[in-house]
Design brief:
alpha+beta; lactoylglutathione lyase activity; six-stranded mixed beta sheet; 2,3-Dihydroxybiphenyl 1,2-Dioxygenase, domain 1; metal-binding; EC 4.4.1.5; metal ion binding; Glyas_Bleomycin-R_OHBP_Dase
Amino acid sequence: MATLPIASVSSSTMVFSMKTPPFPSNSLKHPYIRNSYNHLPSRRLALFQLGSVSAIPQSEFFGSIVSGKSENTATAIKEQDALNWVKNDNRRMLHVVYRVGDLEKTIKFYTECLGMKLSRKRDIPEEQYSNAFLGYGPEDSHFAVELTYNYGVDKYDIGNGFGHFGVAVNDVSKTVDLVKAKGGKVTRDPGPVKGGTKIIAFIEDPDGYTFELLEREPTPEPLCQVMLRVGDLDRSINFYKKAFGMELLRAKDNPEYKYTTAMMGFGPEDKNAVLELTYNYGVTEYDKGNGYAQVHYLSVFSC
């Protein structure tokens, strides 16, 4: 089931909610991940959740944004008004949220092998889950991973809709050596990307989530990519542009290997985290699993 952000607008607040896809009853006790944000007098902070969107009709999204006290009397915002609105604020990717079977083990791997810092951790016993936030700088200025551990659940189905996370490092070979020394799994040794010269490698974390290591010059945002596979690339690009105000930074077709990629984001790749959308020729559907959840992004705009 695709996820759909739905907005209701009043004179004082804007609230975004997410329909959560169902999970097998025996695989996940608490599929809901609760988040909160502060309402500031001089500006509003809107938290969006990005999932797999290739199956969501754009007309359904824009038809869901309404003003007034009830849908029966409200008038839907025109599409052009919505397009203008998303371009008039300052936004960035905030957290990527996914579920892990052993929180302490994953934190240890990310801090020791990938050089991330643990920024905060919290336990919510009444909801039977814990989560931890890690990244390469303060959360108010850097993209972060939000790891969620649900009590008693030690394994998840990652599926094949989620692809990988990208981490920029100064020396891919040295990072791979460190991962191997710590007992980590390397699925692709360092070497040039297919059809190019950039040095990359692939590793897996303790839960099987894939990380692509990209050799780059120092960057303010080392946690630089989230790769998702989509069944209709043009439709997905159009959705992220219209619904979230993202820019198409670049696209590349690779007919030799039968796939096309598109980089979407809120700023240049060398300074911001981006979504990498991948279309594999002839594949229109993917198994989303129940491990990867969504990307949150923060929208800051004047009242």
